[in-house]
Write a structure and sequence with these properties.
This protein is α+β, with helices and mostly antiparallel strands. It folds into 2 domains: about 1-95 and about 260-300, Periplasmic binding protein-like II (D-Maltodextrin-Binding Protein, domain 2, 3-Layer(aba) Sandwich), CATH 3.40.190.10; about 100-245, 3-Layer(aba) Sandwich (D-Maltodextrin-Binding Protein, domain 2), CATH 3.40.190.10. Helices cover about 50% and strands about 10% of the residues. It has a 4-stranded mixed β-sheet. The protein has a 3-stranded antiparallel β-sheet with strand order 1-11-4, sandwiched between helices. The longest helix is centred in the middle third of the chain and has 26 residues, at about 145-170. The chain is globular. The model has no long low-confidence stretch (mean pLDDT about 95).
Length: about 350
Amino acid sequence: ELYESKYPEVTVINATVTGGSGVNAKAVLKTRMLGGDPPDAFQVHAGQELIGTWVVAQRMEDLTWLFEEEGWFEVFPDDLFDLLSTEEGIWSVPVNIHRSNVLYFIPENLERWGVEAPGTWDEFLEIAPKLMNQGVIPMSLGENWTATHLWESVALSELGPDKYGDLWNGELSWTSPEVVGVWELFGEILEYTNPDAPSLSWQQATDMIVEGQAAFNIMGDWASGYLSVTLNVQPVTGYGWAASPGTEGMFMALSDSFGLPMGSPNRDNTIAWLKTIGGLDGQDSFNPLKGSISARIDSDLTKYDLYLQSAASDYQTGQIVGSLAHGVVANERFMNDFATVMDIFLA
C-alpha cells in the first residue's frame, strides 16, 4: 500500500507461487531466471540462499550504489553487511530481521515445576531430569528442519560467534574436536525431546509449551507472532523468552530480502520498490504487522510490541551471526545435504 501510494501509476503484480514450503516457488523462479524471463524482484532469504544460487550464476545486480545513494550504510548494522555481501558487492535489500536463537517458555508453568529458564546447556541438562520426573518434556521439537534450527543454536553456544563464522568460511573443519563436541551435546539434548517430533509442525511444538506438555522450545521469533496473534498468549504476561542457552549477547539473524535480477523488465520500478522496502517508513509499516523487527537501527520502536522491542535492542547491541536453517550461511545444496545428515543422525 505504501508503494502504491508513492507510485500510483505503477501496477503491482503479485506473482506468488504457493505450496511446497517454497519448493514450488523456487522451481518457477529457476525456470524464469534461466529462461531469460526474470521477475522484476523476488523474495529470498538474505545471504547464501541468494548469493550461493543466483549471485554466483551472475544473475543479480550489485546494489552497492543504491545503499550509498540512500544512506543505508549509516542505518544498517555493520554485521548485517557481512550477511548481505561478497567482495564483489551487496546483493539484496533486507525488509526485516527475524531472530533464530530464542528460547520460549511459559513462566507460570516453570514456577509450578520449580525450575528457571536455563542460561547454559549445562543448566538445561541439570534441570531436564527434574522435569521428566514430573511428566514434562524438557524441550519440544518438530519436524526435520526444526532439529536443524535447534542444532544451530547449540553450535553457536559451543563455538561462539567467531568460530561459528569460521565453520561457514572454511576455516574450521567439520571433523575438528569443537564441531564433534557440538554434535555430542546436541545428541544429549535430543534425549530430552518428544519422541513424536518428526510428525509435528513447528506450531505444534510451540503448542506443547502453552499446553504444559513441554517446558521449553527453541524457535525463530515468528513464534512470538503465533503466540500473541493466533493463540492470544501475550509477551511477558503470558509467555517468556530468552536467548537460547549459551548465546546471550549473540543474535542469530535471518532476513527476508529482495534483490535486482539482471534483465529486470521494469528496472526503474523495481529500484523504487527496493527504496520503499529499505526506507524507514517501509520498514516501520511492514514489520509490526509481520511480527519481525526492522533491519534498520533508527526505527520507531513505539510501533512494536514488548517482545519486538526487546529483540530490536538485542539486534542493535549484540553480535550478529547468520542462520543455517534459514539460508543465510549456506547455499541450498549444502542445506539439502545437511537435512539428509540430520535425518541420519535422528534415526
